[in-house]
Fold these 3 entries.
Entry 1:
Amino acid sequence: MSQEKVFAIPNITTPNTPVIFNPEICTGCNICVETCQIDVYIPHPQERKPPIILHPEECWYCGCCANDCPCPGAIQFNWPLELRGYWKNKETGEIHQL
Amino acid sequence: MTTWHEYLKEEGQPPIWPYPVRFGQEQEIEADVLVIGGGIAGCWAAISAARQGLNVVLVEKGDTVRSGAGGPGCDHWCDAPANPLSRVSPDDWAHHMAGRPYSNGIGIQIQCREDYDTLLEMEQMGGKIRDISDEYAGAEGRDDKTKFMISPRYGTIHSYLPDPRMGEPNFNPPEKRNNVVIRVWGSTFKPALKKECKRLGVKIFDRVMGTSLLTEGGIQGARVVGATGLNSRTGEFLIFKSKSTILSTAGGGSLWLMSMELGGYSSMHSRTMSGDGTIMAWKAGAELTKMEGTGMVMIATGLKHKWYSGAGDASYENVPLVDAKGTRLPYPIQGWVDAGAMVPAPGVEAKIREGIMHGKYELPFYGDFPSMPEVERRATWKLMLGEESTTRIIIDTLEKGGFDINRDQLQSYKFIEGQSLPQWRDVGYGGGLLVDWNLKTSLDGLYAAGTQMFAPEDHSHAAATGRYAGRKAAAYARETGHARLSRDQIEAEKTRVYAPVKRSSGIEWKELHAGIARAMQYYVSEYKTESLLNIGLNALKKIEMESVPRLFALDPHKLMRSLEDLSMLEYAKIIIQASMTRKASSIPLNFQRIDFPVVDPPEWNKFLTIKLENNQVKTGDRPQNFWGDMKKQYEAHNKDYTGVYKGK
Ligand SMILES: Cc1cc2nc3c(=O)[nH]c(=O)nc-3n(C[C@H](O)[C@H](O)[C@H](O)COP(=O)(O)OP(=O)(O)OC[C@H]3O[C@@H](n4cnc5c(N)ncnc54)[C@H](O)[C@@H]3O)c2cc1C
Ligand code: SF4
Ligand code: SF4
């Protein structure tokens, strides 16, 4: 096993990842940072990198950051496990969850 | 890399605060009209004042582009009886709506008279209000000529209550519908409002939290002549000087509940709604009313992935609810068949519960999208849910996850999610600032609009009252000059604002909020007596004396959250004091006093008012319908009203 540096960090807040950025697509334009009424994100110190999720537990799941992103695929909404909806195929009765 | 801890791992250090830190530094700004809160009401107020040619400043805690409850969208424009398809007159409908006890007849009259004009102005600015591309041709409620789409809500009577005639033959036929609610594409609204503000030269201060009002001579109860603000990214202190000021920061926050881990911030609203404006006005000496009334937190408490929770999944507008075997449930669906009813008639819920226990209905229940006519299915999914607000991301993620409205039934959480606890209350739609026919508060120079007022309504109400307040505040500003600001008042506010950043340990904002919420749950909830309320007030005073001096904030953002807590603490105390004043129980106020069990006795059918005078709490009252004859009063105050904006 590699000798990775292990930091002493307090427990991560829960939930902690309201969205997942795709660094390949995201241009780091920070429109989502500005759109969010809560300031869940801060801009990344390096240009063209996806923002940093700083206050995830304050997210009110309004979706505006993802809705207004100009680059399809750059930001994916990521519902916390306890908030993932269920549905049923009416014909087969098969049950699905997000 | 997306999360904070990933950054730490990769970079070997936490990110540095990305904005310049300017704690204590000042910026002074002058305005004719100052608007605090850039949500729906605030944007409309700023636009309408700017259209009068005045210098307007708009202060918003988030970013005006999507801030507030209406930032993400709005799918139904309520109470627009002046629209060409309506079958009721604005004055009649206003009268009807104001018949609900403890509603706000002034706001409702303004809404009914002016919100259709407001809607047309929304269209001028680029908001989408008609089915211009015929996407929903053939849908029920769609008018081929105007291309308006009437919504099934408020079908026969007001609000979401069931009509006692529901189920009778020929109930709610198309030719008899009142047609007062219009379906709209509200996700287009907020960016259009911000754009119009900018076009008109409104100076927008985003990420600035208003913290206090400044009064002439620094005296409580005197004319409001400005305000202070905190930039939540830089920590800078802003001083605004104004001829007139409009408060539109919406109502109180999540006072009874604090559990972020449930997801969705413990209430239907975001954290930005924390009662700041109400407390700013209160400290300045403005009169509040209806502060003892509370609602139940029923919507989206930790169930943010569904449209509504607790209240029922009826807001699958027109979507039939079926059980696991496909049996239709006798639950209203907020649609044409039940004239928009959202809650079931008495007894229905108990019957379904009984059916569940005895095997008549099998859990879980589903919204049966595939059984709907194709165009109705699309209208509900894409227009109603796609535009309502926080629902857009729900349908978007469901679709991406493989859900197909033509094939699949969506699970309903009604019944399996349990009941909302009586201790989970909400202040959102109850008390607020007392206003007159100019939407002026009891203080000169101070106006209020939208949810900031007592007994507020919905989106179109916020828009219409914002637009109206902007007009009236502009008229006042034109006739008055600037006053000198009191440096003592500013210094005292600066000391209060920056106290938490002087400490680096003690109590953090989340713990303080949870502490306030717990006191409210214990003492200001289902069981109310004089002594319980007293214990509650003392508990809050103890928090104020012992915990607030230990409140610490590590950066400008957390400082904003800490100040919000202080608003909430003060708000909570007002609720208790107002509750002590009402010595009777009341159903419309959701207010049960065990020591005064008589429900709504005639002598208590009145608004109770509360304010600070020389820092002492002073209570009073106003009769129900204190606004007088709504039609006459409206007309007397609006002889100069010119209708839809004709400027460029
Ligand atoms: C999920 C959801 C769906 C809804 N759907 C509909 C619908 O379809 N139809 C409908 O009619 N209604 C709907 N509503 C209600 C509607 O959104 C509100 O009635 C409307 O937004 C109220 O407008 P407002 O201006 O009073 O408050 P808001 O729009 O909430 O604006 C208040 C603003 O004040 C700002 N603010 C707060 N404190 C401060 C401060 N100290 N300093 C500066 N700024 C501050 C906030 O950031 C916010 O931007 C919905 C609400 C929600 C939450
Ligand atoms: S996710 Fe989208 S909006 Fe956010 S920075 Fe990346 S490209 Fe811009
Ligand atoms: S969903 Fe809303 S609150 Fe959450 S991060 Fe996105 S914009 Fe911010």
Note: The CA atoms of residues 10 and 90 of chain A lie 46 Å apart.
Entry 2:
Amino acid sequence: MEKVNKRQINWIDKNNKMTQIPTLLCMTSPSVPYEIGLTEKHLNELEADHFNGQLNRKDLLQFLIAIQQRFGWICKDAIAWCSHRISQLETGISEQEIRGIIDFYSFLEKEACPPLHLHLSTNVTDYMLGQQDHQAYFETLAKEYPKRFRVTNTSCTGLCDQGPAALLNGLPIPALNNSIREAIRKLVEEQPAKIDVAATFPTPQDNIQLKDQLLNRQLQSGNAIKRVMTNPAEGFLGELNAARLRGRGGAGFPTGFKWQTCADADASQKVVVCNADEGEPGTFKDRVLLHSHIQQVIEGMTIAARTVGASLGFIYLRFEYQYLLPMLTAAIEERVTQNLLGDAILGEEDFNFHLHIHLGAGAYICGEESALLESLEGKRGIPRIRPPFPAQAGYLGYPTIVNNVETFCCVAEVALTGGANFASRQCEGSTGTKIHSISGDCERPGIYELPFDTTVEDILKLVGAKNTQAVQVGGPSGKLLFPELFHEPVNFSHVSSGGSFMVFDESRDLFNVVKNFTDFFHHESCGFCTPCRVGCGVLSETLDKFAKHHASDDDIQHLREMMELMDVASHCGLGQTAAHPVRFLLEGKPDFFKNKETTDSVVKIDIHEETSAARELHLANAGESHE
Amino acid sequence: MSDNKVKVATCSLAGCFGCHMSFLDIDERIVDLINHVRFDRSPLTDIKEVGHCAIGLVEGGLCNEENVEVLKAFRENCDLLVSVGACAINGGVPAMRNNIPLEECLETAYVNGIGVVDPQIPQHEDIPPLLNKVLPIHEAVHVDYFLPGCPPPADAFWELLTAVLENREPNLDYSLRHFD
Ligand SMILES: Cc1cc2nc3c(=O)[nH]c(=O)nc-3n(C[C@H](O)[C@H](O)[C@H](O)COP(=O)(O)O)c2cc1C
Ligand code: SF4
Ligand code: SF4
């Protein structure tokens, strides 16, 4: 264990073994509407039922989520109780620290919440489908019934092809329309004791438009593992390298290299994590894979476990996808009974793999792998300093591989059909196929699995996009492409993508698109480092100035300086890419900024607006002097 | 009164006059300076309206409507506008109110404060309305130079003015912009 990063060994118990983890930390299903009156008895029960009767520091986030989902908020007493329980162990935690965790995650609330809480998705695709209208409607409803109903916003919910979308007490409602909002109003008015969201409202659809090898595969559970088990554990690394598989989560890191590092590490325990945080706006393919191809995902993870010698695994599921929890839990349990998970898998001694599901609580940054590990350990999701890389020292200091959902599906494919076969479909070194989530201005949004020689133009034709002005490939942290570049293929050498593809036709003001993405980063910055925390705010506010026609050349200069600074000085990928939307538009179509510059050559602020607070207090004449 | 002297205007917006005091710390060099410049609107002259000037030195940020009007006049009349001191550049001490709602701020100062007699929020047509937030001056107008410091050292003022008079780019030594 000497190799373990000191900072992270706190929670490893003295026998150098993993402390026992309850089978599923988050089994408490969300309650709609929230129950009232959390008492100590509830907390004791929760702890006894799901946390082995002793709440550990690393279970804290899961525990808080469980409280949140049943009671709608986490009261002061619950915080004190958690602090007290955990502090009985040698690693205590203060109430302040717990409040810090609650503040970090956007779905955790410290203030009392009415029994129904609607989160409206704020991705640009939701707005393009008329979100504003619903927002206004629900805000009025919330004003009418402040004690029964609350409406707030949340970042992309992964339902971009069926928006505008919302979450009701954490459960998804796609394709909002008038009848849905009437139905919600009815619930608010009638206050039923129980609401079956899935039965009352439409449920998320897979909406698969084009299948290839991954989506055509109907895996007989165990088949991929059995093929791998004919060779010694490390043997699969050769297959992976032959497949030249690269990660599908966005960065395109060679999977074989990552696994090799982890396999080579010397440690008593190793961990495999499936990154199902899918936070990049416009991406929803992982949701579909989890829903309809979970066998491939788990099989890929199990193969990973055998290859690197891991016996512990997690699926880190974003909060927005918790409606999949019962289904995923059942899949895991079934595989345990089939001896495809658990101890001595398929009779092979030492092939043990215990898989658990952890929920996120609304933080895009937790998709970044080291922040994800922090979150798995029950902390705020602040990206770690690397090295050590997760494959060297990850979850609780154990060597950990983190891969995207789709990557694990590819792994299963490689196991079934061989690395060479997988690599035979390639374009400029990108092998296999890629699943794209397509949304925005097109006739057939949805899921498309495509080979790597597919160009942007091909995709646009396929989805029935007309008069396309620009495409955002790879989400806000990816690229904004204009027609000049539509001939480029979407692969790791040209336009790299984690799977988000948003189409904007000529009717759209791209400035608003970029503003939406910038606000997203501003909201999701974890706040750890100044260039990103402040920089995102400055970008956002400067864009506001343009939107109000108060900006000038100087502001363009400020934007440029800030973009430069954020690129070079931010701690993690979020800050390093947060300025990209502004940059792409400023470089590609500067007119979107130019035509919003102020017409007043001297003063760039609107004095009427800047004195609004004084006017509200009747300290200024209602704008007489400056109209 | 036409002469060849370079015209300089100065003002203090939401500032404490500390920057002006520091400027005066050029001490006897002010006699040399007066041979080359003429002060237009400035607390030193008590001229109320700014005329056309080569240089405008602005101390303090924007906290009320009158500040914005003065700044506008400076920008319109000065060839080079200089943002002087932490308050003009960042908002400084006055901007500490920016995280507190205006109403709360005023109530604390004029209604609930310790030792307040006849508590009420002052209100009169002669009192310029406060801005929602204290702003640095470059938020509102284009600024040509920034003199950092709280206050900037006298030598920094000296360097700035002599450089402009000699028609070269000002260049502050490290010691003039390092404040630890
Ligand atoms: C800000 C940020 C957010 C990320 N979000 C995700 C995500 O939601 N899902 C994902 O798979 N990878 C995400 N990543 C990439 C992960 O850090 C990591 O590279 C990936 O999970 C590795 O898996 P792969 O090699 O299979 O792609 C994100 C990275 C950054 C910097
Ligand atoms: S770059 Fe942003 S998200 Fe990343 S660590 Fe810094 S503040 Fe957090
Ligand atoms: S910068 Fe310092 S000296 Fe100048 S006005 Fe502000 S507080 Fe006073």
Note: Chain A has 27 helices and 16 strands.
Entry 3:
Amino acid sequence: MKLAYYPGCSLEATAKEFGSSVRAVSKALDIELVEIPEWTCCGATSAHATNHKLSVGLPALTIKQIQNMGLDCVVPCSACFNRLKTTEYQMLHDAEIRQEMEKVLSFKFDGQPRVYDLLAYFVEKIGLKNISPKVQKPLKNLKIACYYGCLSVRPGHITEIDSTENPMQLDNLIKALGATPITWSYKVDCCGAGHSVAKSAMVTNLTGNILAKAREAGADAVVNSCPLCQTNLEMRRPQGEDIPVFFFTELMGLALGLPEAGDWWSKHLVDPSKVANAVQAG
Amino acid sequence: MYIITEGGPKALDLNFTKEVSQRSGEDIQSCYQCQKCASGCPIAEYGEMDTNQVLRMIQFGLKDELLKSKAIWVCVGCETCGARCPNGIRIAAVMDALREMAIEEGVAPGDKDIYLFHQCFLDSVQSLGRVHEATMLMKYKLKSGHLFDDVGVGLKMFLKGKLALFPHSVPTKTEVRRIFDWAKNKKSGN
Ligand code: SF4
Ligand code: SF4
């Protein structure tokens, strides 16, 4: 199967291990990822926080590029997914915005929705029944806090997630990999997101709460799908907190027994290799 | 009609109420102060006013007070409030509209670091087509004066190969420039 692929800026930099694990896992699932040639930034929080037109215009350029490829497009980063999906939604439901974007970018939108959150694509389109048979090293005895955060979840009418208060797609994936997703109440709480640099103390308070609640609920590790959350949960955590945080594709790679998995742990700011090695030792 | 504020009586500016509704596409008048939004807001303690108060102030047309407030800048856009509001008001979109109006009217941002960060981020996108984290962060540090914050983490990131020294610039950036010109030239609306 062939899919268009939008990596986004973080996967080339602060979330390198997310980028490599996305590619490795997709290959193992017989998915060919075709990177959008010359893809550009989605504008992230900074665009929608300051300029409405920019927040639609930047992702619209990507929508045009995806349409040119004629493929469904998967987006691993929750933040990019949110911006691209929001713009796609607006172009589908607001004729004025669509026409304006068609004019600025000289193209005709064909009205076909093509943007998918990679996690949702794996769970819903590829299907857990096709993923679990590929598990070589089940993540036995591993208790995982599935952390969804904000941007792959809300607003629900745009993300089309199963629930905005208690989503289960990541929990179900983790279960299919052989681990135990724990029940906890912070799965859709905010980590402070884009305020990481300008308001770091505030972000540390938020991540401290999230990680402490995960530990209290008995988790050995946290898993998530957002480079922004990952950076905050690792870099902005209170001193002394040592619970590791994985990208969901890293746990998939581990469970699928991919040899590349060993290369990812050293990229983390909080070393997850103890948990990972325990799984690999089986 | 007048409202008594800390600064004395003020005329209700209902044009402001209308403009925020139009820009955000949200029905501001349907807010009935249940405070569900504020109780789930992660930054409630940092904004100097609660989310529901922001809504009430828009209803009362307290434009100056809102546009210079810190609350509109510390809102991180997590959309929790909107997901829980019984009247379906997407307050994150309302906050976006307020910030945009503050910028357009040249009001000094209620939190200058946050605004500066957004500017540095978008400058990077405008000139390269993508964000180059190392140069973007350096620019933020120089301009904000927070020169030595995070030096240790930055070094760790660099050693892990996560902060590339040289930016990658994409050819599609001419189209990106076109988008920036269009977005900046005309006043925006929804
Ligand atoms: S979107 Fe803003 S106001 Fe609403 S809950 Fe999140 S931080 Fe608070
Ligand atoms: S949740 Fe909605 S109705 Fe209730 S106070 Fe907040 S904005 Fe108003």
Note: Residues 2-117 of chain A form a domain with the Glutathione S-transferase Yfyf (Class Pi); Chain A, domain 2 fold (CATH 1.20.1050.140).
